[in-house]
């Protein structure tokens, strides 16, 4: 055993020495690698990376490198910070995942070294995609990886946080774990990656990212990747990058952070001019004419996505429909992503939550129903198709107000879409069907109103007023196109309120609660939350649950102008408490006595008389129980003595009749009681007779002793005689009088026979006679 252990230890030392020597040679190759000498080489085999990474890339079918990968990976392998930008679908995910794996491999990272790499993504879907690619290409490494996003179990993640080497997640959840997870140690962090960094800033994660970066060690390597580079990204780069290099297209404008972004060459771009009320008609007609395509339809808000999805689902265009937006639960979003990726002919209605970084396979069309807020958003939306050199088509609908301004901004980025004309023969109007659906279904009407409000608000908050002209919106026609009878009223909030709501939307709920903690560390909750004790209280305290909300009730309830009967038992007003200064001067009590009389129930009733009970006749007219008649009507019926005598006689007759009824009732009760007693006696007698019959059927064979057997026979004979006597008494009994005149006969054994009783009276007489005998 000692020799085997010694040999095993020796082999392990040799393996470690070989690995150390290979890592040194690998680092030498990295420093000597010159991308300019490998311009024609497009294979991952030419890169100075480990065999484990190469094996994972080959099994995941990643063989050739893209432009951004050829330019950024060699620089990242040399431990330089990078600010990289490239077209959508150009392979930015592998451009930072390969350096992450190689960095930890060369550092000989183990599970005991803690967190080695942190990858931050703006959306949950993109974070999930990054994690899936990381698991595929890193399957032959020994690193542990974790995914932390909103909508998952926080406790489950906290328990495993100390054993994660590569962490992928969204900004809010990562910062939450930094504040709560005891085992999360970022002091040894080797690499920080921000994917779609510009989107992180646009979604209001600026403060969150600053808080995350402030907790990280300054000696790390940082990689910033985005399809577009703006001034906000350059500000973030100055905070988090050190001696960074810009990677992207080779032109002077990009080196000055004024990049000219363009879409892939394989993407065919079109636009059509459509009036706002005709957008849904054109969209439905377009879907009907492309039933064998896979397309993504972008809308500006989640409420619009929900409304269009529900209405088109009822109209049944002939193709599978899906919806995806940020207000869905994480399980539903994940399931929708998986189904859409595997489907071939489907339409996905979505918001900008999937506009960046998500790699959907084989998307034929990207339709932008609502104009994006800027050119960068247009580029990211259109980039969901024509990825990795494949063909794809993009269509954007522009109104006459949006067309000139937005086309000029696209032209400044070298994007010139072609104009399409709509064939009138294929154009269909769905406005009558929408009106019918909303009339029959109040829930759809509620969704339509919300969709209308969200679109108008989205136009109001746009910064580019040359493109989005709020004052020129045809609100009434747009409302009718959605199937609504009229345009709902809208309350427009200020820009500061909207910005604050946007920041709160992307902030972790746990962090908000921690921010409300007092000096002792206890979380201070609102009064309503303190009063809530059970889950049922919480359920009834919620608002906006599906359509059973205050908004829905305001929409569906009848107005006061229709019928007064509909307002029965309806609370019209809740604030009945009146203050003294609100009352007129004449109504205010002028003395203490008057105030006491006004506030006292007893004093107030003294002037109004005592309350009396009422009864209603057949016509529904109320009358007092003791109603007084007039004096003339009283004298018509006679004098007082006559009326008193008549009343006494009438009551006497009623009492006599009641007395007769009571006697009859008592007599019937006595008879019933007697009958029940005799019935119980008869059942008892039948039970005893049945038991005697069973004893008579027993056969005794004898004991073997003659004297004992003879004695037993005598005993049995006497018992049999007694049984016969009892049987005669019970079974053959009849009515017996006091003089025994009804007796039929008497035999030698003194057995008296009677006729069988037929009535209860006969049975009673027989019983009394038997008692005498």
TrEMBL record:
SMART domains: DEXDc, DUF4217, HELICc. GO terms for biological process: rRNA processing. Residues 704-773 are annotated as: Disordered. Keywords: ATP-binding, Coiled coil, Helicase, Hydrolase, Nucleotide-binding, Nucleus, Ribosome biogenesis, RNA-binding, rRNA processing. Residues 709-722, 753-764 have a biased composition (Acidic residues). Its main location: nucleus. Residues 279-438 form the Helicase C-terminal domain. Belongs to the DEAD box helicase family. DDX10/DBP4 subfamily. Interacts with the U3 and U14 snoRNAs. Associates with pre-ribosomal complexes. The Q motif is unique to and characteristic of the DEAD box family of RNA helicases and controls ATP binding and hydrolysis. Pfam families: CTE_SPB4, DEAD, Helicase_C. Its EC number is 3.6.4.13. It catalyses: ATP + H2O = ADP + phosphate + H(+). RNA helicase. Residues 42-70 form the DEAD-box RNA helicase Q domain. One of its GO terms (cellular component) is nucleolus. This is ATP-dependent RNA helicase. Residues 723-732 have a biased composition (Basic and acidic residues). InterPro entries: DEAD/DEAH_box_helicase_dom (IPR011545), Helicase_ATP-bd (IPR014001), Helicase_C-like (IPR001650), P-loop_NTPase (IPR027417), RNA-helicase_DEAD-box_CS (IPR000629), RNA_helicase_DEAD_Q_motif (IPR014014), SPB4-like_CTE (IPR025313). Gene3D superfamilies: P-loop containing nucleotide triphosphate hydrolases. Residues 73-247 form the Helicase ATP-binding domain. The keyword Hydrolase applies. A motif (Q motif) lies at residues 42-70. CDD domains: DEADc_DDX10, SF2_C_DEAD.
